[in-house]
Specification:
heterotrimer, A mainly alpha (114), B mainly alpha (543), C mainly alpha (510), A: mainly alpha, Helix Hairpins, elongated, C: 510 residues, mainly alpha, two-stranded antiparallel ribbon, 21 helices, 73% helix, disordered N terminus
């Protein structure tokens, strides 16, 4: 097994773990972590792809590295936003769950009077 | 722009401009007295304009308006009905609070009605028909009762359903039009050469037939005409419903004999003609009886069109138009008569009753009335065989229904015997009466359908008389045994339809539950992944 | 290949405008953030005006040159550099979105003006900044010519849209926002994975270059499947619409208008780009039919569920679920046309018109619902008495927007329907035509119910809870009118949408 294949398999495994957590785990925080694991898997894959440029005689393809960094920043901000929302949710209700008590179609969804 | 173009433009522009002016409340308040004036440009256009094509737009797309022969005839009589009903409405509105919305709906319907009569391209026609439907359903709503709400909903629903069929038909039609033309005058030729001729024709006929009140999709008609205010019923039963008949006449290829289409159409039409009579006889409200008579008469009109299509008689278009024109005048006048009657006491009854009776029996074909001329005009199309017999039977039926109408009308007078209808209500009605008597006589020779001397021959007069005489006889029996007749709910078939609708609504419970289930997090996320896999599969597997 | 790189890849006159169209909203956002407080609104409104002018200038440049407007960032050519491109599709969307945003901006002046005496209120400040952010990211989605830039743009769009859901900060709305965010993130990570795979094989993410290099092979299939599904999740196409109805339940009217009218159009537009410009040679008719089928399910389920809603806002939200379905009917139709060797422009134009007219109509509807809520203090469909006499312009706007959704002439919805039905008949896919007609009928039922309920006279002595400023009503009516009169686009002498798309159309036909 050569390097790129190993990394590729690792990336696939990470994406799988992440997806499992994101889908199955009921806790929002674990979901956020799940998302980050998927993200890591994708970035690892991208890194592997960049490494392949080296095989063509270059010192590595620079474009994926640039994109990767951007992607990590984006994923970081996504996580930050999600965590901020989560904290807010905790402050409001004390209970942190994504399942609303009532179905949204009949919830007491009238916003309070402005 | 030529003079004719200008006339046509003002005919549509005037009611439309008034409609726009209604956006300003101050203008809207002053609008009611002007309702009777709005259709005058349309009348002028019908009388003076020639058949130039008025185009708006650019090389890619044009809106076209034109005055063809059927359009001229129907627009003339429709404009008169709109004028008379407009003045009637002015008086009627004095006693009601919510004049504003009535005026808006009225002008919208008028714009649509005049527009449909004049539209010469597919898109413009469809657009104005939609304006007409929405306006007319608004007019029905003006009845203000919960019955009116139901009637309006049913009306709009049927109209939109019909327009869905029509849209499909028109798109198919547009596809085969030569050189991308969208002109209605090219449509008939395009249909008969189209590879999808049958489907296109079927879609058009179903769509327009629904709007014309063909049985079994006639149920909106009694509901709407009963619930709408009197002047609105008059224009709807007279002018609005003729728009679809006119469209049928314009779209159907009369040059080529299409018995496989014409005969079933005629059969449905005749069925409606008798069905309307039978159900109408069980009704007791004058407005409802008139509505069912409209079902019957529109059925007959469609039968005429169907027969004309079956034999490929291009003259039948004009004859059918003439029939429609007479029905427009007579039915409009009769609806107004119902209103006048309600404000007339028993003492002056005969003043109103006599003209109403003449008009009513005229629909059955009373000699020397416009109705007799109309029947005479369509006689060559019906022939003397089985179809001719059916036509005569339908005349007998109509006579019975009209006698029933008169007998019910007599009981609906004002409670104080000495009252007489206000002049401003009676005079529009009188105008309509005169128009309904005189205009068919004028139009008959003018449109080249026939000449007076032919219509006045004794054997022709006799041929028109005997169905009336036969029709009178069973009515004595019916009046005697009236109580034994079953009472049909108004709108007969709609009751079944509403039951079915309720069932569908309960199915919605299950659908809503399923939708809620799909929105659960694990389900939705799994769906997303499954979709990605399936999507990949569709890319690979079916290559 | 007729496609010549040298002609494609130089900055055209007016190219700088593309940069401005993206930067101006973000600059406005930063300025608003720095000044804060009550000034944010004024900054935002000024930015809206400037941005609208820029978008109009772009449209002018496009029509004058008759070709796409291009800007090469920093002079670095793709594949190393990044290009901004605005072809007909982009410009039409830019224009439509600018009009809708301006309408929403005028409307929101009343709802999100800073209350007097308060130095800085959180919700108004957030709203104005996010409105600009949504606009900037949407503009970026429309003009970027590179799949990774598009990924960033989509993420920006999501980040700007999510807090709009929970402006009032109640736990219910925060929960909706979090659900939306997580689901959208899953969608974008799938998209990113697809983009990564594409780069791995073809070595570029630039759209024209990729369009030339992409071949029907496993990697391209996997990438397309991942990217499209990710975008569907963000667009909330049924059955992936879990976030949409709850998001609308608690959001303020103006925010709902942004979400429903604009935000979902971003990911939808990207799907269109991928489908027609990048993967034109890879897509198959069955895959297009799959999209169409989902659209069909959306139309039926969305409309029926909308009919059963008791709250006006949720009714409109489910109507959005249904209308998103219409947006995906163009895929089987256009693919059917091009696989029959015909020009797919009819179907593409129809789909774009549908999107634009829906953006305007839905924004108008949500804002009308907001005005009704302000006046009544609730938005129960069963009890809209007296609305016509109190808010005549608003009810008229609702009816006109409804007419556009139903597809009555002369609305944009009608023209779209006409084009799509002609495409359906040409390609003998009559079932899509049938579906569109049925969907229109279902739509007409709830529009009718709402209008009729609001026609009922108010109880005696009833008073509006809060008066509604006239300009708010006018803004709503103006948007509804835009949508209703959009059918007049047929008079447009030039097929603006197809400008600058000839290259990609050639790739459709070998």
């Amino acid at each position: 097994m050569n390097g790129p294949t190993l990394f590729g398999l690792c990336a696939a495994a990470l994406i799988g773990f992440g997806l499992y957590g994101l889908i199955v785990n009921p806790q929002p925080l674990r979901k956020i972590i799940g998302f980050n694991i998927i993200g890591s898997g994708v970035f690892l894959l991208f890194g592997t792809i960049a490494r392949r440029g080296a095989a063509a005689g270059m010192g590595g393809d620079p474009v994926p590295q640039a994109l990767l960094i951007t992607g990590i920043v984006v994923a970081f901000s996504a996580t930050a936003l999600a965590v901020a929302l989560l904290l807010r949710l905790f402050d409001e209700g004390g209970v942190v769950t994504l399942v609303s008590e009532a179905s949204p179609t009949e919830a007491k969804a009238d916003p309070p009077d402005a | 722009m030529t003079t004719s173009g200008l006339l046509i433009a003002t005919a549509i522009g005037t009611p439309f401009a008034m409609l726009l002016a209604c956006l300003i409340p101050a203008f809207r308040k002053r609008m009611p007295p002007l309702l009777g004036l709005a259709p005058i440009p349309a009348l002028a256009a019908a009388l003076l304009a020639d058949d130039t094509l008025l185009m708006f737009g650019n090389a890619q797309f044009k809106l076209a308006f034109a005055m063809d022969k059927p359009g001229t005839m129907l627009l003339t009589v429709a404009a008169i009905l709109w004028i008379a009903s407009g003045f009637y409405a002015t008086t009627w509105l004095r006693n009601t609070g919510h004049a504003g919305s009535f005026v808006v709906c009225w002008l919208m319907t008028l714009t649509g009605c005049v527009g449909v009569f004049l539209a010469a391209d597919l898109l413009g026609f469809y657009f104005l028909l939609a304006v007409l439907s929405v306006g007319a359903s608004g007019l029905v709503l003006q009845g203000g009762t919960s019955k009116a709400l139901r009637a309006s909903a049913v009306y709009l629903g049927v109209a939109l359903l019909a327009e869905a069929f029509l849209l499909a038909g028109l798109v198919m039609l547009a596809w085969v039009m030569p050189h991308g033309s969208l002109l209605i005058r090219d449509a008939a030729a395009a249909i008969s050469t189209s590879p999808w001729r049958d489907l296109t024709l079927a879609l058009l006929v179903v769509g327009l037939g629904m709007k014309a009140g063909l049985v079994p999709l006639h149920f909106w008609m009694p509901l709407a005409y009963d619930a709408a205010p009197m002047p609105a019923s008059a224009v709807m039963s007279g002018a609005v419903v003729k728009a679809s008949a006119l469209a049928l006449i314009r779209f159907l290829p009369f040059d080529a004999a299409l018995p496989e289409f014409g005969l079933p159409l005629a059969a449905i039409g005749f069925f409606g003609a008798f069905y309307g009579v039978v159900i109408g006889l069980t009704q007791s409200k004058p407005k409802l009886i008139l509505a069912y008579s409209s079902v019957s008469q529109m059925g007959f009109l469609v039968a005429v069109i169907g027969m004309g299509l079956a034999v490929g008689d291009s003259g039948s278009a004009l004859a059918a138009c003439f029939y429609a024109a007479h029905h427009l005048l007579a039915k409009g006048a009769l609806f107004l008569a119902v209103g006048v009657f309600a404000t007339t006491g028993r003492h002056r009854l005969w003043l109103v009753l006599l003209p109403a009776a003449v008009l009513a029996l005229g629909i059955g074909g009373l000699p020397l009335t416009g109705g007799a001329m109309a029947k005479l005009a369509v006689k060559p199309i019906m022939g003397d065989g089985f179809v001719g017999l059916l036509a005569n039977l339908s005349a007998i039926g109509t006579t019975m229904l009209m006698l029933h109408f008169i007998s019910r009308l007599v009981t609906s007078t004002a409670s104080i015997p000495s009252t007489s209808a206000p002049v401003c209500l009676a005079s529009p009605w009188l105008l309509m009466f005169i128009a309904a008597i005189a205009l068919p006589w004028t139009l008959y020779p003018m449109t080249g359908i026939g000449i007076w001397s032919y219509a006045l021959q004794p054997e022709i007069l006799w041929a028109a008389s005997w169905p009336i005489l036969i029709g009178i006889m069973p009515m004595f029996v019916l009046w005697r045994w009236r109580k034994a007749l079953p009472q049909m709910p108004e709108g007969d078939l709609i009751v079944i339809g509403e039951r079915a609708l309720r069932k569908v609504i309960t199915w919605g419970d299950g659908l809503e539950w399923a939708e809620g289930w799909l929105r659960r997090w694990p389900v939705a996320t799994m769906m997303l992944l499954a979709l990605a896999v399936f999507f990949g599969e569709t890319l690979i597997g079916w290559r | 290949m007729p496609h010549s790189l040298s002609a494609q890849d130089v900055t055209t006159p007016g190219g700088l405008l593309l940069v401005l169209a993206i930067l101006i909203p973000f600059i406005g956002m930063l300025i608003g953030f720095v000044f804060g407080g009550g000034k944010a609104m004024r900054v935002a409104l000024a930015t809206l005006a400037v941005g609208l002018a820029i978008v109009i200038a772009i449209a002018k440049a496009l029509v004058q040159s008759g070709d796409a407007v291009i800007y090469i960032l920093g002079g670095w050519m793709p594949p190393l550099g990044v290009a901004l491109r605005a072809d007909g599709l982009s410009v039409v969307m830019l224009l439509a979105i600018a009009v809708v945003i301006c309408g929403i901006g005028v409307y929101a002046r009343a709802d999100f003006g800073s209350p007097s005496g308060v130095k800085e209120a959180r919700a108004p400040l957030t709203f104005w900044l996010l409105l600009l952010a949504v606009w900037g990211s949407l503009n970026l989605v429309f003009v970027s010519g590179d799949l990774f830039t598009l990924y960033v743009a989509l993420e920006l769009l999501t980040f700007a849209a999510v807090p709009l859901v929970s402006l009032d900060g109640r736990s219910e709305t925060v929960r909706s926002a979090l659900r939306y965010l997580l689901y959208a993130l899953l969608g974008s990570v799938l998209y990113l994975l697809g983009a990564v795979l594409l780069y791995g094989v073809y070595g570029t993410l630039d759209i024209p270059l990729l369009a030339m290099r992409v071949r029907p092979e496993p990697v391209a299939w996997a990438a397309l499947a991942l990217m499209i599904s990710g975008l569907l999740a963000k667009t909330a196409l049924f059955p992936l619409h879990l976030w949409l109805p709850p998001a609308h339940a608690g959001a303020p009217a103006a925010a709902s208008a942004v979400l429903s009218g604009l935000v979902i159009k971003g990911s939808w537009f990207l799907a269109v780009r991928l489908w027609f410009d990048v993967f034109a040679g890879v897509v198959t008719l069955p895959s297009a039919q799959t999209l169409g089928t989902l659209g069909a399910a959306a139309i039926l389920v969305g409309n029926v569920v909308a009919l059963r809603q008791t709250r006006l806002k949720l009714l409109i939200a489910y109507s959005t679920v249904a209308q998103i379905g219409y947006l995906f009917l163009m895929f089987p139709l256009a693919t059917g046309l091009s696989s029959a060797g015909l020009d797919s422009a009819v179907a593409v134009n129809g789909g774009m018109l549908q999107a634009i007219s829906h953006a305007m109509a839905k924004a108008a509807m949500f804002m009308a619902a907001g005005l009704i809520y302000t006046t009544l203090g609730h938005d129960r469909v069963a009890d809209l008495r007296g609305m016509t006499s109190t808010l005549p312009m608003t009810v008229l706007a609702f009816a006109l927007a409804g007419a556009s959704l139903i597809g009555l002439p002369p609305s944009g919805g009608f023209l779209a329907k006409w084009l799509l039905i002609s495409a359906a008949i040409t390609t003998l896919q009559w079932w899509w035509a049938l579906l569109m007609l049925v969907g229109g009928l279902l739509t007409s039922v709830y529009v009718f119910i709402v209008v009729v309920r609001s026609l009922a006279p108010a109880h005696d002595g009833w008073k509006p809870k809060l008066p509604v400023p006239r300009y708010q009503q006018a803004a709503v009516l103006a948007l509804a009118l835009c949508s209703f009169l959009l059918g007049a686009a047929v008079l447009c002498p030039l097929d603006v949408m197809q400008i600058g798309r000839t290259v990609s159309r050639n790739t459709l036909l070998p």
